Amino acid sequence: MDQRLLEIGAMVVKRAEELGASQAEAYVAASRSFTIDVENNAIKSASEKRDAGCGIRSVVKKGGIGFAYVTTIQDEDLFEAAAKSVKLAKVSVPDPDFHALPSYDGVYPPVKGLYDPAIRRLSSDGAAELIMRTVDATNEAVDKKQTAVEAQLYASTGAKAIVNSLGISSSVETAFMFINSSPTAKDDTEQTSSYEFQVSRNLKSIDPEWVGSTAGRNAINNLGSRTIEGGDMPIILTPLVVSTIIGGGFGGAINAEEIQYGRSYIADALGESIASEALSIMDDSHIAGGIGSRPFDAEGVPTQCTRILHGGVLKNILHNSYTANKDQVENTGNASRPSYSGLPSISPSNLVIAPGKGTLDDLVSEIKKGILFRYTGDRPNMTTGDLSAMVMEGHYIKDGSIEHSVKNTLVGINMRDLLQRVRRVGADVRVTSTVVTPSIVVESARVTSG
Questions:
Q1: What confidence tens digit (pLDDT) does each residue in 312-354 have?
Q2: Per residue in 384-431, pLDDT tens?
Q3: Are 155 and 232 within one domain?
Q4: What's the rounded Cα separation, in Å, for the pair 115 and 172?
Q5: What CATH number did the domain enclosing 68 receive?
Q6: C-alpha distances out from residue 9 to 25, 149, 172, 235, Å
Q7: Global pTM exceeds 0.90
Q8: Which of 124, 176, 385, 445 has the fewest CB atoms within 10 Å, measured from its CB?
Q9: SS3 label, residue 58
């Protein structure tokens, strides 16, 4: 498949050049995925999807850029899309900050564990067994008469290739698997829910019993929730919250495009001390089996490990070829695309927060009065950095022990303050998709409850 996609890419680039493009780029991808959904403890639906297509970016001599994509890899459709991209380039307004497509003719860094053929071979019966093991484990952790379980399994394998006029030509195969459980637990007076998941590029590392039992225990632990007296207090951010607030909220702020347009709360902070010395963060594209790992980015540029925060100082931000050329700096290889249907943007690969010392229990034992914050869906305002996050799952800590779960509770803080107030980093590292992080203790944040 890899070689076939490279041939398609080369053919499309050549076609665009024949039609008048001075430079052209083809991003070709093909994938197979299937999903199983569980509702009320039983399989509700199962579906399979096959997808293939090509995105074509053309540049003409006057500097105009055109982009078109097609959802097939048939020659006739590819040629039509190539013609459309060239036509759009000829009528587009030139961008003075665009220099050229990236070039590279060297050897890409080896990255292990991106493809597991066992995921491709996973049958529908095998997938159904995995998801029902998850459901059974959830029900074992919670009295079956008092719970309803929703769950999902998603598995995908595929390949992508990038070819351009300036020497880039590379491809990679990948595999991905995701499984989750979301139980709703009830007692005589209350109903609550929880959520747990695992993601991996390796089938053997998926543990449906762990996912199900953890989700079930969390749901039971969330019963008996109460409001608390608000105020400023320490907050323990567990890996799921760190993934959302720092992974999404800080990972987006170090996007060079957002910074160049003044849409980031850390604009003009490069080289400055913006965080606690306890917090060290890097972007690492080469973790074996990492969800965000890749030998090259979405423009075919070699990836790397980039130090972001060290000693509290913002050392680097993340670039693609466009923003690097605009700032006249080294490209960090962080171009990304949602699929062949989109133009390159910027995102972290694997955002890694260096671990410190201590288990989660150790961190809790050091808190006199505070919140253990397990899950939220809220992110900060990327321009101001202001964060108001609903504690969707969390517990009140008193005198070093967990007292009870909390409800109707919000945590408010500005991200610049949050980064500065990190006083402790644990060692309970977890992979939460493209973020690898332990729990983090923030010495003070505003808590509102009631």
A1: 999 999 999 999 999 999 999 999 999 999 999 999 999 999 9
A2: 999 999 999 999 999 999 999 999 999 999 999 999 999 999 999 999
A3: no
A4: 9
A5: 3.30.2290.10
A6: 8, 45, 13, 50
A7: yes
A8: 124
A9: strand
Amino acid at 193: S
**How far apart are the two ends of the chain, measured CA to CA in Å?**
57
State how far the Cα of 423 lies from the Cα of 279, in Å rounded to an integer.
8
Quick check: 371 pLDDT over 90? yes
Cβ-in-10-Å burial (0-12, 13-18, 19+) of 93 comes to exposed
User: What integer pLDDT is reported at residue 169 of this predicted model?
Assistant: 97
**What span, in angstroms and rounded, lies between the C-alpha atoms of 235 and 372?**
6
What pLDDT, in 10s, does the model give residues 36-46? 999 999 999 99
- Measured CA to CA, the distance from residue 364 to residue 369 in angstroms comes to 10
Is beta strand 435-437 parallel, antiparallel or unpaired with respect to 351-353? parallel
244: left (phi over 0), alpha (psi -120 to 50) or beta: alpha
**CA 44/CA 150 separation, integer angstroms:** 10
Question: Any residues with CB less than 8 A from the CB of 394 and at least 6 apart, and which?
Answer: 371, 372, 373, 374, 375, 405, 406, 409
How many beta carbons lie within 10 A of that of residue 67, not counting itself?
Answer: 20
List, for residues 257-289, the tens digit of each pLDDT value.
999 999 999 999 999 999 999 999 999 999 999
**CB contact at 8 A, 346 and 256:** yes
Q: What is the number of domains present in the chain?
A: 2
SS (H, E, C) 242-284: HHHHHHHCCCCCCEHHHHHCCCCCCCCCCCCECCCCCCCEEEE
Claim to verify: residue 169 and residue 258 sit in the same structural domain = no
pLDDT tens readout for residues 16-61: 999 999 999 999 999 999 999 999 999 999 999 999 999 999 999 9
Range of the domain at 188: 2-220
The CA distances from residue 155 to 121, 205, 268, 367, in Å, are 10, 13, 41, 40
Alpha carbon separation from 248 to 94, 310, 388 (Å, rounded): 32, 19, 14
Which of 171, 188, 220 terminates a domain? The answer is: 220
H/E stretch holding 123 reads none
Q: Is the dihedral angle over the CA atoms 39, 216, 134, 112 positive or is it negative?
A: positive
The Cα 416–Cα 272 span in angstroms is: 12
Q: Find all residues with CB under 8 Å of 331, minimum gap 6, and list them.
A: 102, 301, 319, 320, 321, 324, 325
Check pLDDT > 80 for residue 146.
no
